[in-house]
């Protein structure tokens, strides 16, 4: 293994650059329960002591603890067991001894209220993280559902709309319609004129003076107009197959 990873004077006052367990675990990028187990075990084995702040007796972690945690993480990732890693720590770090009068024992009596408070804070922090994650997941799912509904609604609207027509095709269609309208009217006027011609002379003519008769053009025009108006709509339906 490499040489000394970090040196620190444990006899000095606690540095301002310290972290509580949750912030420290995020810095190391290891779950705080795992971090806590590592350092509890180091203390139980009398290897390394974690500083506390008073009067709460809450653990705080400094740069030395950070380097030790990274070291443990590195060799855990390589597949090492904890005991062999812990055995190498005295050769790699200037470990922090226990304060004077502090017993090194797995049966050490802790301040129950402080321990309970620290445990409570860990649980609350964990619950907060879980609630935030759950809320984010729920918002993401609701957003995705709303987005999918909008996409589906858009597709339904597009399906209900008529297909867009080509401008050239529209112009051609209108031209054909105009020609058809004109032809239908011309056909009906021709038919009306033929029907008018079949009428008797008395119906078609009017007397001019005593001896002369002439075609009643006004009457003829009215007849043709009425004939066209009567049959125009039906004839258009026939032409357009309606």
UniProtKB/TrEMBL annotation:
It comes from the Bacteria. InterPro entries: DNA-bd_dom_put_sf. This is MerR family transcriptional regulator. SUPFAM superfamilies: Putative DNA-binding domain.
């Amino acid at each position: 293994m490499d040489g000394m990873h970090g040196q620190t004077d444990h006899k000095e006052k606690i540095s301002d650059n310290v972290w509580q367990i949750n912030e420290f675990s995020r810095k190391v990028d290891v779950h705080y329960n795992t971090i806590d187990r590592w350092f509890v075990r180091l203390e139980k084995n009398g290897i390394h002591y974690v500083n506390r702040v008073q009067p709460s007796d809450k653990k705080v972690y400094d740069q030395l603890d950070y380097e030790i945690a990274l070291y443990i993480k590195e060799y855990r990732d390589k597949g090492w067991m904890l005991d062999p890693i812990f055995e190498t720590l005295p050769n790699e770090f200037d470990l922090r001894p226990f304060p004077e009068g502090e017993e090194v024992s797995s049966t050490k009596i802790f301040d129950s209220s402080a321990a309970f408070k620290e445990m409570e804070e860990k649980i609350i922090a964990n619950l907060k993280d879980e609630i935030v994650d759950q809320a984010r997941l729920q918002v993401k799912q609701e957003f995705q559902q709303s987005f999918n509904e909008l996409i589906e609604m858009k597709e339904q609207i597009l399906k209900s709309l008529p297909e867009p027509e080509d401008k050239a095709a529209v112009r051609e269609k209108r031209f054909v319609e105009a020609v058809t309208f004109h032809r239908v009217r011309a056909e009906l006027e021709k038919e009306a004129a033929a029907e008018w011609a079949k009428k008797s002379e008395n119906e078609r003519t009017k007397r001019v003076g005593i001896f002369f008769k002439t075609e009643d053009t006004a009457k003829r025009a009215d007849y043709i107009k009425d004939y066209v108006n009567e049959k125009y709509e039906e004839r258009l339906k026939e032409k357009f197959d309606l």
